[in-house]
């Protein structure tokens, strides 16, 4: 049976060279969401993915809120690894 271990990391978005803009979008049911439009680029995110990937971690899910990115990672446990 394959076993997985998980890790959660939080990453602060780098400062943007331009003023950030908040965008509010609402659906037809009346639920509204605030989105921060970041102009910091994606290079910092690619670096995180590369660093984790080289260590055998796979991104399972991510969520963005208030200039922070929460990432959930999984990695296959080595055979015979103790919990």
Word description of this protein:
The chain has 83 residues and is mainly beta. It has one helix and five strands. It has one helix at 43-54; strands at 4-12, 21-26, 32-37, 58-65, 68-76. It has a three-stranded antiparallel beta sheet, with helices on one face. Strand 2 (21-26) and strand 3 form a beta hairpin. It is flat and about 50 Å long. The model has no long low-confidence stretch (mean pLDDT 83).
What attributes does this structure have?
Gtp Cyclohydrolase I Feedback Regulatory Protein, Chain: K; three-stranded antiparallel beta sheet; 1 helix; 5 strands; 14% helix
Blueprint of the fold:
Layout: E1 4-12, E2 21-26, E3 32-37, H1 43-54, E4 58-65, E5 68-76
Antiparallel strand pairs: 1-5, 2-3, 4-5
How confident overall, as mean pLDDT? 83
Tally of discrete structural domains: 1
Task: For the record, give the distance between the C-alpha atoms at the N and C termini, rounded to a whole number.
Answer: 14 Å
Topology-level CATH name: Gtp Cyclohydrolase I Feedback Regulatory Protein, Chain: K
Annotated CATH architecture: 2-Layer Sandwich
H-E order: EEEHEE
Content of β-strand: over 45%
Number of helical segments with 4 or more residues: 1
Q: Unreliable stretches, pLDDT < 50, 5 or more residues?
A: none
Largest sheet: 3 strands, antiparallel
